[in-house]
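Hey,

The postdoc asked me to send both predictions to you directly instead of through the lab channel. I've kept everything plain text so nothing gets mangled by the mail client. Protein one:
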Amino acid sequence: GGDHTITYPILQAVAEKHGPVGLVHVDAHTDTSDRALGEKIYHGTPFRRCVEEGLLDCSRVVQIGIRGSSYDPNPYQYCRDQARNAPLCSPFCVSVLPQGFWVVPAEECWSKSLVPLMGAVRKQMGDKPIYISFDIDGLDPAYAPGTGTPEIAGLTPVQALEIIRGCKGLNIVGCDLVEVAPMYDVSGNTALLAANLLFEMLCVLPGVKTM
C-alpha cells in the first residue's frame, strides 16, 4: 500500500544493511523525475533520490512496463544517462547485458511471455542483493483500475506472475507493492490482484519452501 514515495525510505534502510542493491521495478512510469508539482520528494521521484544517495547498484536496475504520460518532455533520458552497454535490440534477444538502468517499454512486452526477459534479468542481477518494487499501475487498468495514475496498454496478470516467479532464487532482500487505491475500483479486483501478487512475492523470498 501507499504511493511509490515509500520505497525511498525503505531503500535507505535496506542499503544501511546490504549496501547498494539491484532493483526489479515494474511500473508504468520510471519515477526518476527530479521534481513533480514543485516537490523533490514525490511518488514520481523516488528512484532519482535513491541514485543520488547511492542506494541502488545502477549496473543492476531493470524497469519493466514503462509507458504513458509524463511531466517531462523526455522522461527516459535520466535512465538512459545511467545506462552503459544497454541492448540495442529487443530485450528478448539480448546478447550484451545492460550495465545500468535497463528500461523495458510496455510495447516490447505486448503479446509475449516474459519468461525469456526474466532469464536475461536474472543474469543481470547475479547473486547480489536485489529489491523488488511493483507499482500496480504497471498492469493494464482493464485488470487494475484502482490506482491514481492508470495508463492503458499495460502488462497482464500472467506477465506479472512471470516477472515475480522469474525472481525466484535471486538474493531478494525486500519488496513492495504500491499505488493501490481501492476507492477507484468498485469491483475490488485491484485489491484482490495486489494481494495475490504480494503473496507471490512472499513465495519467492530466499528460504521459503513452496509446493
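Protein two:
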Amino acid sequence: HHVAVACLTSDPDTSIREKEAYFTAMTRRNPPVVSLLLPLLAVATTSLAQDFDFFYFVLQWPGSYCDTAKSCCYPTSGKPAADFGIHGLWPNYNDGSYPSNCDPNNPYDASKVRDLLSTMRQKWPTLACPSSDGTQFWTHEWEKHGTCSESVLDQHGYFQAALKLKKQVDVLRILLDAGIQPDGGDYSLKSVVSAISDAIGYTPWIECNNDEGGNSQLYQVYLCVDTSAAKLIECPVLPRKRCGSEIEFPSF
C-alpha cells in the first residue's frame, strides 16, 4: 500500500478523482484491519449487553394447582397460605421466545439465599409431589430462568427481586376488593383482568387450567417487568393460550 501511495502522490498529473477510485478499489480488495475488527467488537459488546427484553413475573393460585386430576402435595413446612404464590421470574424476548439454562456453571446454592429462605417458604412454596422443602423447585427456577438474567441479577438478587415484586403487587387483595373471591364461584375473565389492570395500571395475562370436572379455573397471573426486575411494564407480548370467558376461582 505504501509504495502505491507514494507513486500516486508523487505524480502531479494524477487527478483527485483517479486517486479516489484507486483507494476505493484497494479498500474493496483489502479491507482495512479496523473494518474487519468492527463486527467482532460489535459481537463482543452485544454479549456484554442486555440479553433479554423483559421478565414475566408469574403468580400461581394454589387452589387451582391442587384442584386437578393430578392433585398436589403440601410442602414439608405445611399447607401454604391461601394466597397467590410465586411461580417464577422469567426472562423473555419481545418475539415471545425465551432463553433458558444459560449458565450450567452456576447452580442453585441455598447458602447464597440463606437470609431469604424463610420468606421463600411462605411466598414461593412448592406444591409438587412428593412433598419437599422447596429446594428442587427453586433449583429449577434459578437454573432454567434465573441464570439467564445474570447480566442484571446474581442469585441472591434474583430471588430477592421476585419477593419484592410479590410484596409490591397483592393480587389476592386486588381481587377481593373487586368482589372476586376464591369461593368456587364463576367470574368473567374480563372482570378479573379489569380488576388487576385498574389496580396496577398494566394489563395482566391470565392462565387457566381445568379441574377434575373439566371446568376452566383461574390458575396463574402473568405480569410483565422491566429488565431491572423492579418496575411493572405493559407486556410486549402475551402467551397464546387463552382462558374461556367464564372462569372458576376455587377455594384453597
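Summary for protein two, as requested: Confidence is low (pLDDT under 50) at residues 1-49.

Thanks,
C.
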